[in-house]
Fold:
Amino acid sequence: MARRTTTSATASAVTAALALLLSACGGGGGQTSSATDKPTGTATMWARDSEKGFINALADAYNKSHDGKVNVTVVPSANFVQKFGTAAASGSGPDIASIDLVYLPYFASKGVLDDLTSVLDSLSWKDSLSPAHKKLAEYNGKTYALPFTAEASVTFYNKDLFKKAGLDPDKPPTTFAEMLADARAIRKLGAGYYGFALAGQCGGCNIFETAPHIWASGGKILSDDGKTAMFNSPQVTDTLSFYRQMWTEGLMPPSAKTDTGTAQTTSFQSGKVGMVNLGAFFVQTLVADKKIDFGATPIVGKDGGTASFAGGDEITVTKGAKNKAVAYDFVKWATGKTAQTILAKNSIVPIRTDLIDKIYAPRDPRYKVLGDAMSTGQTPYSVVENGIINDNNGPWSTLINQGVFGTRDIKSLQATAQKAAQQIIDQG
Amino acid sequence: MTETTSPPTTAPGTPAPVPARSAGPRLSYRGRRQLMGVLLVSPALAVVTVFFIIPLIMTFWMSLNDWPLLGNHHFVGLANYRRAIHDTDWLHAIGFTLKYTVLITPVLLITALALAFLVNRSGRAARAFQSLFFLPVVIGFAAAAYLWLYLAQPGLGPLSDIAVRLGMGDRDTNWFATATSGLLLVSVMVVWKVTGMQMILLLSGLQAIPGELNEAARIDGAGRWKTFRHVTLPLLRPTLALVLVFSVAGSLLAFDQFYIMTGGGPSNGTITAVYQIYRTSFINFELGYGAALSAMLMVALAAVSALQMLLLRKSDHS
Structure:
């Protein structure tokens, strides 16, 4: 008798505990609205921590002028894809998400985003939105996101060091050979001075900073449809050989080999590094420092030519969004002039090519270079971008690391990386 | 957390009293004790079920599926396991994990034992040093890894400054530049971080050995080494077994220290098994394959721990 009692007591205790736990996990609820409803109530939004500087100001501006409200949660950039992916898979994601454009093909292909084709078509400024952003937002002929913030990569150079080394601070390099010569001249300034800094163990950094050298030389690392890896192209060989030469000649700081993106910026800020490829965000950092007289110039190809990585974020409405009315209203507003002007004031490149010269370029002489770089910038399209490129231990990052800092034959390294990348693409 | 702890206090009470009351006076003392025992254990049971048993079964089920993070999953049988056996990245990761475990386990054990002997005496100084050696244990692993990452940063870390002053290289030497030096640096960090815990465990083992035994050994003419070898060490065996299992299990599960300090590099030379599982699941989003790798690691871990316990128990009886 006592035994039976205890078993049933245990069972009910466990069941009750489970039930309580489950209900605690579920949470939320509340009303839902569709895209065509009147936008009232509150919509939730996730943004990357790199947007921390302006995202709340932007949400406040929207909240003050609209009935609907947007509530922003900032998520660490390094974990954004994992966090958003897991949340979307379990149905606990936000209504609106600001996503790094390189990840859009992946999320669009997995059906977690709402189709925004009609929203894009309804915008009168549709044609002046960043072409790279529009391309990345497309999957199977439909648009799943609107351009939101832009970023572009350029070469920053230290004008003071150029002068000291006897170089013309108004004539930045235009070919690999000139870059090499400038780097050598700066290295000669003494111990601790370096020509060029690289983040050698960072996939994301090197698609932003190194791939433009390849593009400017006329090469590619992925086919346009993202189905074929082109890591074995001769332009990749040229760029890696160029970097390896700078490394073996001691023109890069020793930290470059293991830098995951943290040492590179600080080494340029220290005033002892001649050149570095970075983005618009860095202008703000350097201007705030007030230490270095710097210039910005397009990233060059082997024998001339220029290219840039058009980066930034796109804004999306999730398929499981609860307050779609406010979400749709907000994403439209976010590409408009008011919102984009707030971004420009916070040193973010606007995604409106028609507005760059009015609201952004006049703010700093170097912004013109960045704005132009963004308008013509490229972005690789792949549903497995994270695996082949941004993974710090993936094929792209490994190729850069071994190609620049290793001693093995570059062509055979390319062949290995090509195979690994193609395998990830084929596995989907 | 509040949700997880509160239900057992209220929930079990509601259904249980009804039959218990009706049985009333007939419920023996023993019966009531048993009921009480079950009630007291049920919170732990619920937590273990929800946070261990269910996830464990789910992990196993996922490992039999092609299970992407987003999108549909389908049953593939043992395909994930077959793939793992031929996956060179996975095999490299296992090789590196074993290398790290073999390197760090004896170092940890000897350091901890030496420190335990050092502080195994009375007096304020011994207590002060004991606390000092234990201090790093209270810092989180990630925080410790970041601390050492900074300490060893080429050009700006104090460790490289010390190395220069000792004539051991120049200011710009990058200690993370090769997999071996990276591994050594991480190992030094781990010893600094973990050895205090093992010292405390061994110290309690040492203090549990009755002083009369050492005295008797000395009266019989045994020297310090002989006393240690034939009295202390055999009596310390259960504690050693515990410390060894902790240390080996911890090393086989190493992740954060490498993730933070070396980023798996250079050239993927310091990727551990758990690191590879993380990459599979959360960078390539192959949750099913990641689950299969986890299951393999778990089986290996259980086997190693069982073997260790068995070996040490057997020798105890000899």
In short: DSSP finds 20 helices and twelve strands in chain A.
